[in-house]
Amino acid sequence: MRRIRRTLATGGTAVALMLTAVACGSGTVGETGEKAGGAEATNGKVSIETARGKVALDKPAKKVVTLEWTYTEELRALGVTPVGNADNKGYKTWITAKGADLPKNVTDVGDRNEPSLEKIKALQPDLIVVDDDRSKANLKPLREIAPVASFKYTTKPQLETMEKNFTELAKAVGKEDKAAEVTKRIDTEAADLKKRLEKADKAGMKYALAQGFTANGSASIRMLTDDAFSAQVLNLAGLKNGWKGKSDAWGMTTTGVEGLTKVEKDSNFLYVAAKADNPFTGELADNAVWKGLDFVKEDKVRALDPGTWLFGGPLSALQVLDEAGKALKV
Q1: What does the pLDDT look like over 112-167, one tens digit per residue?
Q2: Which one of 59, 202, 204, 314 has the largest count of C-beta atoms within 10 Å of its C-beta?
Q3: Helix, strand or coil, per DSSP, at residue 250
Q4: Within 13 Å, how many C-alpha atoms sit on residue 55's CB side?
């Protein structure tokens, strides 16, 4: 079976490739004209902005293949079921936000870095949605199958970028009104959490948000800075990030347990880890450095649902807010 060559996996969403193992365009522009299902269209054309310029579709896409989980989640948020998705098992493991479920009839087209061209082609998609960093070396063979919408997740600010990409994807499938409705829910839920925190005299509480797993036999911890999508979601609720480490492109700092000594005092330590690979309750439980950390001694360590995807779309944003509220008991 012919496969797209493997490209370099980078950062946040690509982290899940490792975590799963251990757990974890081009086109012409349609002219402005009549509305078709919420998408800007004329003469049957729909135009969307992507990381590689404008992409034109003859009409809103009905059969979509997604090669990145975030965009699969975004389609589900729009009430759209993709005909194909890369790595169904991984998606179902790492993304459990309400409404993000993946129906059984969705064809698994293989690994996100190495999907099957034959499977994708057999689905006869109207549109293929990819992550620009992961798939930029493979755009040509994909474009031979269908128009490709390539989105870049890491452009700062990530939350704003996610909402922009979500809106463009919604245009592609004729669901702009639904996108606006879902996006508004993020601000509404953040405001609600902020009010609950204020009522509980917990306004402006400090937090540190982490993703933990085991790599090469040792605990590996990714701390999310204010450059990261999930931290920006929590900050909407007035919470204050107590981690100021150096950020990579995805807004993360990778560290070991010793690095956690830099978490600011009075911070609540919120984390996501797979049930089968939780270094915080496993390897680190008897570690002297871990036990000496302020947030450990003060019983401020809080686990979020293992399926809380910290590099996701609007449904993941809502789940982050919900899980944080539960963790902070408001």
Answers
A1: 988 999 999 999 999 999 999 888 778 999 999 999 999 999 999 999 999 999 99
A2: 314
A3: coil
A4: 27
Read off the pLDDT band of 7 (50, 70, 90): very low
- Residue 54 — φ and ψ, nearest 5°? -80, 140
Question: By C-alpha distance, which of 64, 55, 50, 53 is closest to 30?
Answer: 55
199 C-beta neighbours (distance < 10 Å), count? 10
CA-based nearest residue to 56, from 41, 66, 37? 41
The residue among 101, 30, 104 whose CA lies nearest residue 60 is 30
Give bridge partners of residue 4 from the DSSP assignment. Answer: none
- Residue 270: name the closest of 317, 303, 232, 231 by CA: 303
**Mean pLDDT rounded to a whole number for the chain:** 89
d(CA 211, CA 312): 14
Amino acid sitting at position 36: A
Lowest mean pLDDT among 114-118, 204-208, 216-220, 284-288: 216-220
pTM of the complete model: 0.86
Mind listing the pLDDT tens digit for each residue in 55-86?
999 999 999 999 999 999 999 999 999 999 99
Name, in order, each residue with C-beta under 8 angstroms of 188's C-beta and a sequence gap of 6 or more.
Answer: none
How far apart are the C-alpha atoms of 37 and 171, rounded to whole Å?
Answer: 9
- Three-state secondary-structure class, residue 60: coil
**What does the alpha-carbon distance between residue 161 and residue 147 come to, in Å, rounded to a whole number?**
21
Contact, 84 vs 120, CB < 8 A?
yes
Instruction: Cite the DSSP H helix spans in the chain.
Output: 11-22, 69-77, 88-94, 117-122, 132-135, 139-143, 158-172, 176-199, 229-236, 288-291, 294-297, 314-327
> Per DSSP, what are the bridge partners of residue 221?
212, 255
Question: Tell me, what DSSP letter sits at residue 105?
Answer: T
